[in-house]
Amino acid sequence: MGGYAAVVLAGGAARRMGGADKPTLTVAGQSMLTRVLAAVHDADPRIVVGRVPPDLPVQVHSTREDPPGSGPVAATAAGLALVPDDVSYTALLAADLPLLTGEAIDVLRLTAESAPMQGAVYRDAEGRRQMLCGVWRTAALRQAIDHLIEERGRLDGASVRELMNHMRVAEVSWRRPGPPPWFDCDTDDDLRTAEEWAR
Fold first, then answer.
1. Stretch 106-125: mean pLDDT, rounded?
2. How much is the pLDDT for 151?
3. Pfam families this protein is in (predicted)?
4. Half-sphere exposure of 141 toward its Cβ, with a 13 Å CA cutoff?
């Protein structure tokens, strides 16, 4: 596999968690953001879209969507702006995936590089695509954003589903034992479940 970039979306209002700064919440002693960045330790560059805590233990590039709070697609565009043109693949990830692993990213990368598609995402047991746990051809992701701008006139408020309507996606099943790598923490109960799994 060649090199790849990682764009981690660390914004969002976390309304179901009382407005907490969700990426900084800890699972097994590490912030969720730190755990996601560890899963893409070999990505270059690693880009965080959102607030970067001053005590983050790794070096990252950081940016914000414009305007702040304008949603995940605007955040994706802001992150992609920092990915060099010669980087062929980009992992697009939510910052609240504390069970993500390097192995899970490798599976997505191998699929994205071998399938005649524009990207690869995990599909859960209910058949839902986990769009913020995927690896994409960087140029295709940029083109999809351009198409969406042409359609809507702006990215403010656009959903990830709208963006992915412009992409051909390979769906990947996780067949290994243990927790699913796309498990995200939207509630305090989710956080407790992730803590139990991570022990």
1. 95
2. 94
3. NTP_transf_3
4. 31
